[in-house]
Amino acid sequence: MSELIPITALGAALPRLASFGALEIRENVGLALASLALRRGTIGPRPFGLTLPGPGRWIAGQGVAALWTGPDQWMIEYEGRADLGFAAELKQFAAGCSVTEQTDGWVAFEIVLRAGSRPLEALLSKLINIDLADFGPGRARRTGIEHMSCFVIRRSEAHVAVLGARSSAASLWHALETAAKRLERK
Amino acid sequence: MTRLTGGLIDRSQTLNFSFDGKRYQGHPGDTLASALLANGVRLMGRSFKYHRPRGVLSAGSEEPNALVELRTGARQEPNTRAAVVELFEGLEARSQNRWPSLGFDALAINDLLSPFLTAGFYYKTFMWPKGFWEKLYEPAIRRAAGLGRLSMQADPDTYDKGFLHCDFLVIGGGAAGLAAALTAARGGARVILADEDFRLGGRLLSETGTLDGGQATDWVSALEAEFESLPNIRVMRRTTVFGVYDHGIYGAVESVSDHLPEASGRVRQTLWRITAKRAVLAAGATERPIAFADNDRPGIMLAGAMRTYANRWAACPSETVAVFTNNDDGHRTARDLAAKDVQIAAVIDARPEAKARGDYRLIAGGMVTGSRGRLGLKSIEVQANGRSEWIECGALGVSGGWNPNVHLFSHHRGRPIWNESLQAFLPGEDGPPGLIPAGAAAANFSTADALRSGAQAAKRAMDELGIAASSPDLPRAEEADYKVAPVFNVPGKKRAWVDFQNDVTVKDIKLAHAENMRPVEHLKRYTTLGMATDQGKTANVTGLAVMAELTGRTIPETGTTIFRPPYIPVTLSVLGGGDIGRHYRPRRLTPTNHWAEGQGAVFVEVGQWMRAQYFPRAGETHWRQSVDREAGAVRSAVGLCDVTTLGKIDVQGADAGEFLNRLYCNIMATLKVGRVRYGLMLREDGFAYDDGTCARLAEDHYVVTTTTANAGLVYRNMEFARQCLWSDLDVQLISTTDAWAQIAVAGPKSRALLARIVDGFDLSNEAFPFMACAELTVCDGLRARLFRISFSGELAYEVAVPARFGHALIERLMELGADLGATPYGTEALGVLRIEKGHAAGPELSGQTTAAMVGLGSMVSQKKDSVGAVMSRRGGLAGDRRRLVGLRPVDPAGKVVSGSHLFAEGAPRKCDTDQGWVTSACYSPHVRSMIGLGFLEKGDERLGEVIVAANPLEGESARLLVVPACFVDPEGERLRE
Amino acid sequence: MLIPHPLLGPRDAQEFTYLGDARLIDRPDPSAPDAEAAFCDYVFLRDNPAGVHRELWFHEQGDRSWLVVTRDTVTHEVLGAELARNVALSRTRCGK
């Protein structure tokens, strides 16, 4: 491994973690990401055994997951593999596909609710213009948060991930933190 | 006047507040207006133009008169309507538009001058001398006529916004809205019930009528409890739906902490964008006054409002009141007030056939023709059956009939329809799709009708949505008839007010008529009728009726009232959404941002990006000292610059080369793997668009760069080409701008520096020549990309590593390059270096220039088609002979100013002799003078000529020498060393 | 406004950027003898109907699909939306 020491998207040595009442927001620095797009004639790749999901959906396997990002395009996530060249690994499972390393392109914030469910919905209603009735576990959308293009993934009833451009990590954190703090005060 | 009995106020608690410095007490549940009335205060404001004393007219958001300044200091808010301000402990309010005091206002002189202040007076009176308008007349008028004052301080409050989605939005929480919400919620639909009041119930709170024999408030409380228990309904109090937008999108403002003494960290208001599949408009109705002489004195108010104050707030402006009505509803006020032991001096009903509904004196077929009382009503003049009498009373309730609140229904230009028997505009057929009117908003005036229509509207919406809902059992309620006579205006010689807030009287409408401002749109603008902050909620229909009378036409022939958002005044702060200052918009930080901050860099905003502009060092007192030093370091040693902001797009697929061939005007398909080529994109109209580099990493894999400014746009265009123009090509695109920290390492010692970080990679000129690229590892195994490209004209590279290592990489490069003179440089030095080298950038690729103009005409391949190729050959573009040249001052100390226009020496400086302009200019440490780039007519043939650069904005001009557009190493030897 | 995305359902128009007339899909043949005139028409001339209009929208803050949206410019009613790629492909197949 290189002797260079990475910093987080928020510019620190260690990932940020903060709690707001029952909500916890954690910067996930271990998440490896790579995009996968079908080329002409390629059918049905099953990277890491995953069945690639359809529009608006996210599917998870053991540590690995895929979300639909566009027609014939997906983002593949691998928990804890950020240190490796993930694209190179994914390529072996995706013959005939265009694969691009995306790990450093994004900051991932995991928002977990420790109790209840309303606060999570309340938080999301301040951030994204998505009908939450249609945003249960397994749903994922790219949308705008405060003019920043983000992927929002409903990992479970009590867990949402927000992936934003790494360069705007601080602004995205501010948006999430502000909304969470205001919720806490209610 | 003290409190009456009853009311929906909590008498166990007392709230202290002040108005114009005087202390008063009220109770939770009060509004500012109800508490003032309960304290005997009738005088609450002064009118806009004539400074007439005014009291509260209404009990809701239609209030035109009782506008007050609320709170103090930076939180001072002008023009709040006392009728809807919820009372809180410590509330401070002040009256407006008066001096020195509300009781004695010096500008009340305007009232005596009223013959000169009629409609359109300022168009006529202040015509000359011309220059006086801006300097004298307008400021004087603005001081004299007006509303509240701004604090002139920054708003210290915070604001929020949010998004809600539902099946069914219920606008209004009165009888109809509650019935609608109940129907839909029990059916399982996702319901939002929004009401502007702090208490649900609407007019149920104002009336004494029972529901199923019990108090209406009990029924409301039971519903609130049921709603609380249901997961599928969200009740939003203090939330006003102010606008209807396309496809079921509604704008609403929730007052979150306006009603609290201390916001204590809470936001003040929240702007909600609500997307609803269906909605019901249950916004109720607004009573309108009748215009009669001096009908604006404090104490004269709407009869329905008077009833509201008595029933809901146990407040009445006087112990003796009279009622003037043209409909049945006015009698209800007399009956309810009598029941609270208020003395009813008389009920004057304009209808000769009217009958009394209680034990009070009725003057049927009567009219109120005048009033007395300077700061508050003392008596009214009544004429009936040819006789006239003065009746003493401290308050007069006036009812000219009810106007359904069709406002939201008109927001898509839906025209309301006149109903002759109800003398009101009703919602028409062409309202916003999905919005169903119900209750009083649809002229269902009795409580029973309102309940039924609300339930029916919900049922209809549920049917359309395929949700099984059945109408709930609705409570028994009054089914009173509503009959109204068309009486809008009592003829007379004195002024009779139609629009209270803007001081528009019947006389003004007559004048507009006489001066042929008859169409309703002209009437409105000429008299300012309906143009105040209340948007004429109590005035528009009356104004229309008066004009109809004058023209002898019917009301619908005269025109309709149409409304636009917002329904109520909405603060700009809440529309702005909240974040101000540093968080006003998202910021993008480069991977070396924190490092650069540590170096004391000065930053500049480039789009959303924050880029280091220059890195001042101790002793440097002027930015140019830093920039000259940084540029010099690149020319003599090695400089480091974060260039991550350039857009990076990963292009893959079997047809990637062919795709890029069609996008760039030059050929990309023949590029060898491991090589980079400069690329120029044109727009389809043939003008130059964006430039960058194309690196071929594999047969089927390119990485292209765009300018920082165009990164998003170029990606959008590439997707357009991929999906819409050449969808048969096998190509995949994805942005990787943020994924890589890219650092330019430029200068004669750049190779030496890079040799210290690459892992066994041959950097020799033979192995890795100019315009080579490679994937490699650096610093012991870190994956990286290396490009030998140069923007400065020096031997240079760009090295890219995963973004999270950018910080560590630049630290390492600085450390390892200390002995080589490694120097960080910012965008300012970057600009100097590229101007010296004559590289086109944003100012040259302005969207108005061609490839030939920037000296790249030969790049446009004639062998293939590409975006813009055909149009670049059209005569107008191909014939443009302006060319990019270098410019230096004849006097070495002279200035070159970008934006200057170029003229032949001695030529007049006019458009038709204009020969071009200066695009970029800087001080060049290399040339040791200022230099510039510019477009000059036939510039390529005029090297050595002296021209004039005119800068008329600053009254300067300079003589410039035309030179080649490359001041450094014109043969390009340094790049290839 | 809501745009009925053919894959993602109704999405708020704020997620999209607007380009204009869907005729921009029909790029003229650059090798035709009258190519310049055809391109001139393609680049500069647009119909501006009061009524039904087929237009291009880009789902920029979404799945990056270009859509052909059929919209009544008078009422703003959206009559349908399709993937522009499919529209383009079907024209290619028809030998447009």
Q: TL;DR of this structure?
A:
With 186 residues, chain A is of the alpha+beta class. Helix content of chain A is 18%, strand content 36%. In chain A, helix 2 crosses helix 3 (169-185).
Overview of the structural elements:
The complex is a heterotrimer of chains A (186), B (977) and C (96). In chain A, the strands form two sheets. Chain A has a six-stranded antiparallel beta sheet, covered by helices on one side. The mean pLDDT of chain A is 94. Chain A has 186 residues and is an alpha+beta fold. Chain A has helices at 86-91, 118-127, 169-185; strands at residues 17-20, 23-27, 32-38, 58-60, 64-70, 73-78, 97-101, 106-113, 140-145, 148-156, 159-165. In chain A, α2 crosses α3. Chain A is globular, with a radius of gyration of 16 Å. Chain A has a single domain (17-185), classed as Gyrase A, domain 2, CATH 3.30.1360. Chain B has 977 residues and is of the alpha+beta class. Helices cover 22% and strands 27% of the residues of chain B. Chain B contains 24 helices and 50 strands. In chain B, the strands form 13 sheets. In chain B, strands 8, 9, 12, 13, 14, 15 and 28 form a seven-stranded mixed beta sheet that branches. A six-stranded mixed beta sheet of chain B has the order 41-42-43-40-34-44. In chain B, a hairpin with a 4-residue loop joins β29 and β30. The longest helix of chain B is centred in the middle third of the chain and has 19 residues, at 447-465. The radius of gyration of chain B is 38 Å and the shape is elongated. In chain B, 55% of the residues are buried. Chain C is of the alpha+beta class. In chain C, 21% of the residues lie in helices and 34% in strands. Chain C is built from two helices and six strands. Chain C has helices at 35-44, 84-93, and strands spanning 2-5, 9-12, 17-21, 52-58, 66-72, 78-83. In chain C, strands 3-4-5-6 form a four-stranded antiparallel beta sheet. A two-stranded antiparallel sheet of chain C has the order 1-2. Chain C is globular and about 45 Å long. The termini of chain C are far apart. The model of chain C has no long low-confidence stretch (mean pLDDT 94). At the A-B interface, β3, β7 and α3 of A face β8, β31, β39 and α20 of B.
